[in-house]
Amino acid sequence: MRLASLPIGAALAALVSPAFADAIAGGAQKQATNWAAIGMFALFVLFTLGITYWAAKRTRSAAQFYTAGGGITGFQNGLAIAGDYMSAASFLGISGLVYSSGFDGLIYSVGWLVGWPIVTFLIAEPLRNLGKFTFADVASFRFQQAPIRIMAACGTLVTVAFYLIAQMVGAGSLIKLLFGLDYAYAVVIVGVLMIVYVTFGGMVATTWVQIIKACLLLAGATFMAVMVLAKFGFSPEALFAKATEVHPKHLAIMQPGSLINSPLSAISLGLALMFGTAGLPHILMRFFTVSDAKAARKSVFYATGFIGYFYILTFIIGFGAIVLVSTNPEFLNADLIAKGKSGIEAIKGGNNMAAIDLAGAVGGDIFLGFISAVAFATILAVVSGLTLAGASAISHDLYATVFKNGNANEQDEIRVSKIATIVLGVVAVILGIVFEKQNVAFMVGLAFSIAASCNFPVLLMSMMWRGMTTRGAVYGGFFGLISALVGVIFSPAVWEVTLGYAKGSAAFQISNPALFSMAIAFFSIWLFSKLDRSRRAGQDKAGFDPQYVRSQTGIGAAGAASH
Amino acid sequence: MAASALEIEKNPKFRALVAARKSLGWTLSIVMLAIYFGFILLVAFNKELGNLLGAPLGAGSVTTVGIVIGLGVIVSAFILTGIYVLRANAKYDELTRQIVEESK
């Protein structure tokens, strides 16, 4: 059985029982070609290519390429962060989970939101004050450059790679389902477009693709939620009453179900979601696109608002789909109904189609096409941000700082990042095709675990703890990275579900390793810093005062480059 | 001549800024952690708590306590962020501006 593998279907499968994972997945059988959707998507592509052309003329310097010259406003950046973060996975996956299990979907959306306040309180402002292009600028600020940059680049590239594969496989399946295109074509289209956006338009184009997508997605989801609520006189109670009446689980959809079974797993997953958000390289990079710490702070506030609002919408959309999709034979597989399955189980294309079908139910074929196109655009915006973050780690951290010892010519650095973008794009397409029939369920969860266990501890401690040394950072980062990787490989989701070993044979019977891998990272940073008696350790600690003053006041921070 | 980092750190305004921001930032972080993990623990121990989250909000209502709490966590994340941003805009920026001015 192959999973449809939208990344959240995915992340969820890492979390829930295999049987449930099958239930939320559903196959991605090819649909009839949907011309309305393709037309609207073509329009989006043309428009964004126009923006890329405009952006390309403005993208001459490294600062413009990596961070749009720091010229994005707080509000724009808030939208772009939301556009970077609200993946098709969260749109289709969470509404699909609400559709099948009700309340359990809410648990997931809450987890994906609560990292943002932490980013605001502890990370955003010092990050903006200390950094220039990548989060490694901050993590390595007072340390020996090469070892930290290599560690941070590993953390970035591994996070980006897993996130990217999950997005590519999700994109291929989704497009096959929505547009009736072949899987391989779909993956190649996504790869080519993302290469074009990033290589020609850099951060300026990526930002605007994300902003436009965020607006389209928020507008589309708002329209659907309003249409659903309007049918119930804007009374959520009436909507819930009807949903519990038609859903086979009845009142059970209004309370926790099978999503969380062990408190330890739940807490570990919660940690990964919360602190993973604060360690995702493509998200952290967005804070360098604004002019100063104040704008960085504002941008997370707007982003938190947009993302929280969006998750509330997906909850309403999921319930709307229970009422309007699972009762409408047009969206259901007649064979399954004949076999006695409920309307919820018989939805064509699986639960991830709930939001798309609801668009058809409330707005007709044209709106269904619009929402399909938005889902595609959503994937493009997310993969572009990821690719740019990965390419920056290669060109800025590895090439310019480690390989060229900080003396790289700016134009060479930009050239390297463009080459890196193309290479990453090609690799992503190949991996997307290779993994087509694999269960990539665990990959988004893995990306969050690594971000929470490698990037986040090093970043936080480097900004907060005077006693941290180069050695502590490098050991802590690598131990966090390795323990997260090992923890995921030997978890039930990978060892038993993906690799097919016997049930119960996984060494770690916990769905997400973050509780342990984060503890290992923080402990190693502390231990190896304390044990570090090298001369370098003295310099590292002496560097804290200037770093601290700059992180708090912004004195000496990289300003907006041009405009 | 610009003040050195150590001189700036001795500036009482710098100390006030850092202390205020630190205490607000960590307090709000702990509140957010408590709200979120409190919610997760309520979910994890829902059975032991006699299906507290599944209890109807009022007599004859379908909406449950759990739905309201869950949506409440989402809203609280936004409100906490808002509190921080308002305080920072109102106080910290001005203090920072003065510190930067005095260190020139």
From TrEMBL, chain A:
CDD domains: SLC5sbd_u4. InterPro entries: Na/Glc_symporter_sf, Na/solute_symporter, Na/solute_symporter_CS, Sodium:Solute_Symporter. One of its GO terms (molecular function) is acetate transmembrane transporter activity. It is a multi-pass membrane protein. The keyword Isomerase does not apply. The chain crosses the membrane at residues 37-56, 77-99, 105-124, 150-171, 183-204, 211-230, 264-288, 300-325, 366-395, 416-435, 441-461, 473-495, 507-528. Pfam families: SSF. Gene3D superfamilies: Sodium/glucose cotransporter (1.20.1730.10). Residues 1-21 form the signal peptide. This is Cation/acetate symporter ActP. Belongs to the sodium:solute symporter (SSF) (TC 2.A.21) family. GO terms for biological process: plasma membrane acetate transport; sodium ion transport. It is found in: Cell inner membrane. Its main location: membrane. The keyword Ion transport applies. GO terms for cellular component: plasma membrane. Keywords: Cell inner membrane, Cell membrane, Ion transport, Membrane, Signal, Sodium, Sodium transport, Symport, Transmembrane, Transmembrane helix, Transport. PANTHER family: CATION_ACETATE SYMPORTER ACTP, SODIUM/PROLINE SYMPORTER-RELATED. The lineage of its organism: Bacteria, Pseudomonadati, Pseudomonadota, Alphaproteobacteria, Hyphomicrobiales.
UniProtKB/TrEMBL annotation, chain B:
One of its GO terms (cellular component) is plasma membrane. InterPro entries: DUF485, Inner_membrane_assoc. The keyword Membrane applies. It holds the Pfam family DUF485. The chain crosses the membrane at residues 23-45, 65-86. The keyword S-adenosyl-L-methionine does not apply. Keywords: Membrane, Transmembrane, Transmembrane helix. PANTHER family: INNER MEMBRANE PROTEIN YJCH. This is Uncharacterized membrane protein, DUF485 family.
